[in-house]
Structure formats: C-alpha cells, structure tokens
Amino acid sequence: MKTILLSLILLCLFLGSFAQKATIKGKVTDSLNKQPLELSTVAVVDLKDTSLIAYSLSKKNGDFELQRLPVDKQVRLVISYAGYQSYIHNFNFKKGDVIDLGNVTLNSKMLNEVVVRAERIPVKMKKDTIEFDAAAFKTRPNAAVEELLKKLPGVQIDGDGSITVNGKQVSKLLIDGKQFFGSDPKIATKNLDAAIVAQVQVYDDRENDPDHLVSETQVQKIINIKLKKAIKKSIFGKVFGGVGSRDRYEAGGLFNMFRDTLQVSLIGLSNNLNHTAFSREDLNAQGGFDRSGGNTSFNGGRNWGGGIEKITSGGFNINQNYGEKLKLNLQYFYTQRNNVNESANFQQQFLKDTTLLTRSTNSRISNNYVHTLSGLVEWKPDTIRNLRYNPSLNYNSNSNTATSSGNTSNNFDMPVNQSVSNSWGDGHSTQFNQSFYFHKRSRNKSKESFTISHNLSISPNHNNNFNNNDVVNYQRPELSDSLQRLSVRTSNNASGNLDFSYRYPLTKKLFVDITTSGIYNKTSDQVFTYDRKTGGFDSLITNQSSNLKRDQWTENIPISLIKKRRS
Fold this sequence. Notes:
Blueprint (H helix, E strand, L loop, with lengths): L1 H18 L2 E9 L10 E6 L5 E6 L5 E7 L4 E7 L6 E6 L5 E9 L16 E4 L2 E5 L11 H7 L3 E3 L5 E3 L2 E8 L10 H6 L5 E8 L16 E7 L7 E9 L5 E11 L2 E10 L8 H4 L24 E15 L3 E26 L2 E26 L5 E26 L4 E27 L7 E25 L7 E25 L4 E23 L4 E4 L5 E11 L2 E5 L4
Parallel strand pairs: 1-7, 12-14
Antiparallel strand pairs: 1-4, 2-3, 2-5, 5-6, 8-9, 9-13, 10-11, 11-12, 13-14, 15-16, 16-17, 17-18, 18-19, 19-20, 20-21, 21-22, 22-23, 23-24, 24-25, 25-26, 25-27, 25-28
C-alpha cells in the first residue's frame, strides 16, 4: 500500500512539473510547392545570450514538437533549412502553454539576396551532418572540449572518456577533418580548450561503407571539431609540473602548431607517481597519440602492480595535406617504464603451545622500453576512388630481476625452515602491421563498385626466464631442496589476408556481392624448459616444453544478395 501511495505521489509531482512547462509544435513546409521540409532544424535559444535551450529535427512529414520549454522567460524560436531563409520568432511562454504554429513556410534564398543581419543558428542540418555552433553553448573559462561536448544535445561522455551521440558510439574525433588525435578522442577532449572551437559537426562513419549498406542503427558516428579561423594558423599547447615529498615529481607538456595544411604536435611527460600525466584513458593506444588510426599499444598508464614506477615518454605527430586529394600522417612514440617494488612481512601463527614466527622480504625491479612508428596515406583523387594505406612498427624490450627470502622459527628460538629465491628475465618483441584499402565506384548510373582490402601482421618474440629456489627444512632435512630452472621461448606469428569484392545493384535497394577472400596464418611457438643437473642446464623437462607449428590457408568465394537499408 505504501509503495502504491508513493508511486502516486511521484506521478502527481511529475505531472505537476510537466504542466508548469510549455510546448510548441508545427509543420515546416516550402513556401512555393507546399512540400514538407524533412530534417529542418528547430531550435529554442535564450534571448539574452543565445545559448541553446532545446532543439529538434522535423520529421519526414515536416512535423516538429518541442516540450518542457521554460516559462516566464524571453526565448527565440529559430527554424532553419539549408538554402532557405530562417524563420525567427520571440516568445515568452506561460505555464501550461501549448502553442501550435500550424504550417511554417520557409522561402528559398535568392542569389541576389542582400543579407542585412546575420542570425546565429545554434544547430544546423547540412545533408547528413548536424552542426552545432560552439558559441551557443556556454562553458566555464579555460574549460576543455569535453565540457563543451557534454552540453551538446544527445552527446554523452562516459567515465572512461568514450563518447556516444544519441546512443551511437563515436568511432573517432577529428580536428578540422584530420585524425589529429587518433581514433581515441580523449586526449583532444581533455586537453584542448573549448574557447578555440567554432563548430562541432556530427555525421555517420561511412569510411568502410561507401555504398551505405550498413543500417542507421548500426553505423557509428564521427565528431569533427572545427577550429576558429585565428587558431588554424597558430601555436598553442600546455605545460605542467610539480614536486613533492620523498623526491616525487611530475612534468610534461603538449605542443601544437597549425599552418594551413600542416599540423605538428609534440608531447612529453615524466613522473614517478605511478601514472602518466595524461592517464592511460586519455592517451589510449600511444597515449592517445595514435593519430594514424593504428592499433599500436601505449605502455604508459597507471601502475596496477604496486611499487614505485617512473615513466618517461614522448613523441611527435605530423599531418600534411597536399591539396584535397592526398593526406599523409607520420607518428612516433617512445615509452620507458622503470618499476621498483619492495616489501617486508611478519606473521605470527598460534598452534596450541607453539607460536610460529615468519619473516619475509621481497624485491623486484623491472624495466620496459617501447618504440612505435606508424603512418597513414590517404588518397582521394576524385569522388569515385579512395585509397588508404596504414603501416605500423612496434619494438618492445624488457628485463626484470626479483629476489625473495623468508624464514620461520618458533617461540623456543628454534629455526623451522628457510627459503631463498631469485629470478631474472629478459625479452624483446617486434610487431609489424599494415592495412590497405582501395574502393572504386563506376561513373555510370549503375553504381557498381569494386573493392580491394589487405591486412598483414608479423610478430617475432623471444624471452628468457631463470629461476633459482633453495629451501631448507630444519625439522625434516630430507625435505630440503634446491631448484635451478631456465626457460627459453621463441615465437613467430604471421597472418595476412587479401580480399576482392565486386558489388552490382540489381535494384535501388538490392545488391549482388561477389567476394573472393584468401587468409593465411602461420604460427611457430617453441618453449624449452631445462633444469640444472650437472654443470649446465642440460636436463630438458618435456612436460613443460612444447614445439608448436601451424600453417593455415583459407579461401572463400561467397556470392550474396544485400538489401540496402534506409539511411
């Protein structure tokens, strides 16, 4: 009964608050042919500072409706459509107002039209692109781009920095149309100033779907940050630093230079605070510096393994455009991690009339060095051809040493056991990846298309690990033991594929797709584990060793019918 009563009270409060707001609706049509204008932008802004209050896009039949609008406040309704004069009207809504504007007709703009006054439109719809005017969304002084994006209708930023627009994942964030901050947008959203942004554009990611066959519900989004004209030819960045007790320190900087078709970015940081200055989430795959769109791995980030970790990393990124047809990217990143972990433990165990006292110490030192070089070549000579090539090279070397000792005695000052162990290891790995994509669409009305795609990955690795363990049992000497073991692992992995696809439209919505695909995988993994029995490591442990080799070739020639969904 209490639950029902509480629900009724909450419902009444909701309906009461809803009734205190205003609603406006109508239908947008062309003034000449009276046809509905689908996807017209309908926005309500504050008359004082033009900040956006609410917005919507008209439906296929031209209808629109905005609810829960503020009352007793001067607002402005702006209805716009590309190529048409905007409809502008001021309102001061009262509680419970429901205003039906009926048909709102828009006049097409004339070529010889004289513009007397420019009205700021907070939201525009340009073909398949939604454009937000950054000035219509007020942010705090020195706010980052992330704060600006959070104010945009339909945009949500999760705690890990990932972005969704109307529930759809954002695959990449561009700066003036360039992948300046890579497929992970966090370093841009957290470090660029919102004050340098002119517009924010949102559109579908059709990079690998040129024929628009992916459903609207499945396609991801791209956010393009358009900078103010004054910033497009400027130098800007950030520098930070600090010191603390116990020799703790942190320092870093981000530098950017824009010159028309050239973009240069430098990043550097160092600290012994167990985290990167920009956090792993900010930098992602090369510290968020993976601007070439590759899948390289950044080894900075927070240290979850304990100890004191010193991180030093830095890199550069260069984007160069040669006209509108050719875009080049080159990126290098270096990361060094040095970790020291020391611990001591004391434990008491009570067993009837005996108390066991156990003391242990542990020490571990590890070093990791990573070099990553990657690039991107993108060529679009015309509207029917598109070529993209993305190579990357990663080299990783590491070493570690660890020692531990422990002893147990009882309350009668009698030793029970003692153990000493030490280990070391080193290794290195190299990984080369490349991807190639070419798409061509016919010039004739048939809209047939041809696609070539290729991926290649080669990754040789080598690791050595040595362990030495000595255990002395004073109560039962026959259980004392000593073990010295060496493990050597060498692996070589290679995989690649080459796909050819021909697509021909049978109707406007039905396509026949013929694809030939070749996939090759080669794996070699050798693990040899030895015990020291005489002078050297000459005793192979077969149950802890393996020698795996695998070669696989797959070829497919599928023929399929694809139905194009509405987009």
